[in-house]
Amino acid sequence: MDGSEAARHWTPDEFRRHGHEVVEWVAQYLETLEARPVVGDVEPGWVRAQLPPSPPEQPEDFGAVLADLDRVVTPALSHWQHPGWFAFFPTGASGPSVLADLVSSGLGVQGMLWSTSPAVTELETHVLDWMADLLGLPERFRSSGAGGGVIEDSASSATLCALLAARWRAAGDGPFDRLRVYTSGQAHSSIEKAVRVAGLHPDQLRTIDVDADHAARPDHLAELMAADRAAGLVPCFVVANLGTTSSTALDPVGALAEVAAEHGAWLHVDGAHAGAHLVLPELRWIADGLERADSFCMNPHKRLLTNFDCDCFWVADRRPLVAALSVLPEYLRNAASESGAVIDYRDWQIPLGRRFRALKLWFVIRAYGAEGLRRHVRHQTALAQDFAGRIAAHPRLELSAPHPLDLVCFHHVDGDGASEALLTRLNATDRVFLTHTRLDGRFVLRVSVGTQATEGRHVDELWALIDRLA
User: Fold this and answer.
1) Three-state DSSP class for residue 186
2) 3-class SS at 315?
3) Has residue 4 got a pLDDT over 80?
4) First-to-final CA distance of the chain
């Protein structure tokens, strides 16, 4: 021993006291959220200018840390839980989900292998089977067969993992230069990034034309694949979009699956945006043909009241995924893994380590029940449909795309300049926040309804602002 003193750690009593203070701070934040501007108004560099240049040499009072949340942090936040948040997409932060993350952090376990914490693995497997039931997914995605589910951090990671599995199935360890990937021009940017990260050239990504509703055309996919096959190339991976980010366009999954199957390509269905709506039996038509997909993902952290990050990713056959991602050094070998009787989720993701992510989904499902989740999604969808009806009836506004779920896209009849000016005026009110996209070359405003705090009166307020400012 060198005689140095150990750092002083909080006692359980100190943790208990400060923990109560933090929970109270979060509760007060939520109570006062509606009175705040939706987006903080600070200049670049403002936050860093409020902070000392060097870290403290001695421990600080915890009260000072909490005070700086109010002084430094919240003024520079975009408040994604604000009832006036209609931008991008919703992200969950329900009470049960927040507390589950606290428990996960408090436990501090690492679930890379079944043997490092069996509860982490088995609860996740079970919850993903629960989710498959809640969404009405095909039997092939349940853990009882060759497939199963895992929680990734985001749909971006799920897409990358699906591509790596498809790449392995098509070409093993390579070479990969003849492989081709296909998705529509409305697809999320994460697909192009996945192509790059997977070691493919951007030219190996083919763009499928879309129809008038911005959905991928199966006939054009068939043309692309046939031409590639004739040129000696290998169709490898197709991404069908179940709700594009820009407009909630719904690709025809079944028809795309048929074309992909003709060429032996992997079909991945990206349901990050719209997948949560499958909790409603009346909306499951949006995923017709999903039983033919090789993989599927959706984000509970968007519509299902679960805080970021939480993406559910299922495969129909886990063997290509595990083969593509498994690297087994001696220090990870153990009897349970070698028995083949357990799942090691390190082989289903890019990093080795993994948090106890399943806790928050488990808490949310149990706290709300299936019916509570259905009520939330059904209510938010109804609010969006009512809003779309108002847009359709307005003399100066037009709908820009179909609105089957809870995203509404619209534009001003006077053109892009008027649409962009309307967006600027709306966001300047500090009461609402919207974002935009481009559809058919046109500047389009997006209204995404979905935060747990958004009620009918908040949509009414948004409409009143739009009607006055348009």
Assistant:
1) coil
2) strand
3) no
4) 74
pLDDT at position 406, please?
93
Which CATH class name applies to 12-78?
A: mainly alpha
Token duo for residue 127: 């919850």
Q: What is the fold of 101-363?
A: Aspartate Aminotransferase; domain 2 (3.40.640)
- Indicate the burial class of 141 (C-beta count within 10 angstroms; 0-12, 13-18, 19 or more): buried
Residue with tokens 């421990």: 59
CATH topology of domain 370-469: Aspartate Aminotransferase, domain 1 (3.90.1150)
Domain ranges in the chain are 12-78, 101-363, 370-469
12-78 and 370-469 in the same fold = no
Spatial separation of the C-alpha atoms in residues 107 and 110, rounded to whole Å: 9
Report CA dihedral (187, 189, 192, 197) to the nearest 10 degrees.
Answer: -140
The partner residues of 78 in beta bridges, in order of sequence, read 39
Sort residue 229 into left (φ over 0), alpha (ψ -120 to 50) or beta. alpha
Residue type, 448: S
Query: Closest by alpha carbon to 134, among 404, 368, 318?
Result: 368
Q: In what order do the strands lie in the sheet with 205-208?
A: 148-152, 311-315, 295-298, 266-271, 234-241, 179-184, 205-208
The answer on pLDDT for 290 being more than 90 is yes
Mean pLDDT of the chain: 94
Higher pLDDT, 188 or 250: 250
Q: What is the Cα 14 distance to its own chain's centre?
A: 36
Judged on CB neighbours under 10 Å (0-12, 13-18, 19+), 87 is buried
Residues 411 and 59: their CA atoms lie apart, in Å, by 54
User: Average pLDDT in the 294-321 region?
Assistant: 95
